[in-house]
Amino acid sequence: MSSSRSPVLIVGAGPTGLTLGIELLRRGVGIRLIDRLTTPVTTSRSFTVHTRTLELLEQAGIVDEFQERGLRGEWMDYRFAGFPEKVRLDFTGLDSRYPYFRTIGQCDTEEILRRHFTALGGAIDWHTELVSVTTDPDGGVTAIVRDTNSGETGTVHPDWLVGCDGVHSTVADYSGAQVGRAEYVGTAMRMMDVPLRRQSPGFPVEVGGIDYRITRDHMLLTTALPGGVWRVLISEPGDARNIDASAAAFQKVLDEHFGGAVRLGSPEWTTVFRTRRRLTSRYRNGRIFVCGDAGHERSPAGGQGMNTSMQDAFNLGWKLAAVVHGHTRESLLDSYEAERRPIAEQVIAGTHELHSVLMDHGRPVAERLAIAREPGFTEQAVARISGIAYRYGSALGTGSPSQRLSEGLVVGDRASDVEITARLRLHERLRHGGHTLVVAHRDPHDAANISALLTRVRHRFGARVEPVVVTPPGYHGPGPAGAITADSRRIHDRYGTPGGDAVCLIRPDGYIGAHCLLTEENTAFATLRDTLS
Length: 533
Fold this sequence. Notes:
The chain is of the alpha/beta class. The protein has 13 helices and 31 strands. Strands 1, 2, 8, 9, 10, 11, 21 and 22 form an eight-stranded mixed β-sheet that branches. Strands 6-5-15-16-17-13-19 form a seven-stranded mixed β-sheet, sandwiched between helices. A hairpin with a 5-residue loop joins β10 and β11 (153-163).
């Protein structure tokens, strides 16, 4: 191996590293992606892709294959031993084009991402591990990598280094971050992907969601995966190093719940693991970042880990690309930690609450059911698990100086999808990779002012900002060039204001960067200037 340079070196070719690679490549940033594994993983591990991740995959232009290959899941049912009722988390009411989750094995998720990554010109250097990282007084990074097959070492001088290398991150070790850990002591997980055979009419578990069976001493999860297999996961007291993961041990728990109605086939994969909470003290140190599980870990309750990690990559990708291209100041990258670390804290807290219901082994079932019966529990759990609940603080952007507009949207909120016409949704206009300037235009007298704003934005920012001007049905007047006449007033109700025209700036990752009246257009322009100059 020889010495080389790279704009961005990404360590770890799992879902997080691949997502970040795609986000950078589609914006024209050169990268090098390495992974210590010899070949891609062939096991499923994570198996849920949630609503917010599906929305972001749509913006990246790669959601269709997840839709085709993943099974649709609309609910999570909690069944408590000794109680006839079930508590259902129903995802079908979410305000999204994707009011559900997709169950799909992690190996398939990585395969899809890898295909798109390579289609963009990316390549993965397998059997290549990061050995050490040093920084010079000016912040320059030097990484020593090693070919795990030959043992040969090489030197890489990346402009930026991003650790997507998981819970045992080498990059995190060299970033100088402190790591806070809290083990779920005495809890062990065993899981298996296996065909299930019904032994009597009426399969006891429905297809279309995830079934949880909760007793005082264990929790059983079952859900269908693509390819005719099921994920069977058991959480129980014990040490993961001493847990019996034999098919007979799994069958014993199934029989306890289903009375012999289900028999295991030949397992495709079995593993045992433990779980913990972990959060690094920083996500950035100069030109070094951690992303995904390298920065945080949480209970598997609700299946949010991979989704949170991929959303880290969506947040960092557009910002790093803007800096690499010289379109903005390096200080923009400070917002990555400022926005994503609080989300990780919220996810860790939310999954811990779910863990206390599902896997607080030894605690009376009645007490855990009481938590799930509390008003708002199911709605809050669905919003958190889906990723819809999370919003950013004020690290970037500004809102209306005079009022909160429309449906209470504020800077940092997720920009929800809305139908503009029968053939066009708002999220379809967010796929270009830059900022989107939505103008909810009602008053014909403002047409000239809108045209002047668009000219000003185009001259300053060019193709990095795409305007979307929408007029309501029945609009009469000389509308701005390129304006779209909506079929209904939904987009004006969501992003406008009843009293006049409004401007909403949507960031490349689908969150609101500015929201103001047209008369306060300098608010949106200032956000663009601060972000893209």
